[in-house]
Structures are given as structure tokens and as C-alpha cells.
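User: Can you recover a sequence for this backbone? Please restate the input before giving your answer.

Assistant: Of course. Working from this structure:
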């Protein structure tokens, strides 16, 4: 890849940085994840699902929202790959996806909010 010649040389090895900068697609993906968690209700639901597997009715009660509103947030979190679901008869249960990405987000949320995981 050809990198632009920078107008000023500040002696900070900017060219080395430019050689390592991730592709635009990586920033788009990360922006999408942060966008999904940019809603306080979705963030709260995601945090809850990092600690337990729950159905819509129970999640609704935990966050004091209607079931349709919670379902809307769950669809967005699931589409982003942050949560998974499983069906047991008529009931659908949701939990955080078992991925490095969700573990990092969970840890970041608790660190930024200065709270400790209930499981510790």
C-alpha cells in the first residue's frame, strides 16, 4: 500500500503507524459494536446477559421495560453477534455470546463503570 507523504515530520515515526493502521472495515465493525451499545437500555440488557441466561419476560421485569421493547433491543444485540439465543419449548432464552469480543466488552463496561462482576 502506498502511504501519503506527511506535510510535517514531527519525528514520531508516523510512517510506522500508517503501515500498521487497520483497514477501514475494522473501524466500521467496531463502530457498529459501539453503536449497538450506545443505547443505555441495550447496554444494561447486555450486561445482565453477561451474567445469566434469561427469557424476555424476566429481562423485561429486570429492566422495567415492556416485552416488545426488550425484544427490539435483543434483536439488535443478536444481529451484532453480542448475544445468542436458544429455544426451550415456547420459551426463548438469551445470553451473552461466548466470544472474546463479548468478554472484553463485559470487562470494559465493568471497568468504566467501576463495578465488580457479581460472579467475583
Amino acid at each position: 500500500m502506498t502511504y501519503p507523504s506527511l506535510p510535517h515530520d514531527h519525528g514520531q515515526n508516523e510512517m510506522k503507524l500508517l503501515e500498521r493502521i487497520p483497514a477501514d472495515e475494522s473501524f466500521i465493525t467496531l463502530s457498529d459494536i459501539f453503536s449497538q451499545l450506545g443505547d443505555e437500555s441495550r447496554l444494561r440488557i447486555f450486561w445482565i446477559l453477561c451474567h445469566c441466561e434469561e427469557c424476555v419476560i424476566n429481562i423485561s421485569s429486570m429492566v422495567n421495560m415492556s416485552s416488545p421493547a426488550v425484544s427490539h433491543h435483543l434483536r439488535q444485540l443478536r444481529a451484532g453477534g453480542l448475544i445468542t439465543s436458544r429455544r426451550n419449548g415456547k420459551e426463548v432464552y438469551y445470553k451473552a455470546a461466548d466470544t472474546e469480543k463479548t468478554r472484553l466488552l463485559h470487562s470494559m463496561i465493568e471497568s468504566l463503570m467501576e463495578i465488580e462482576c457479581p460472579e467475583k
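That completes the design. The first helix runs from residue 14 to 20.
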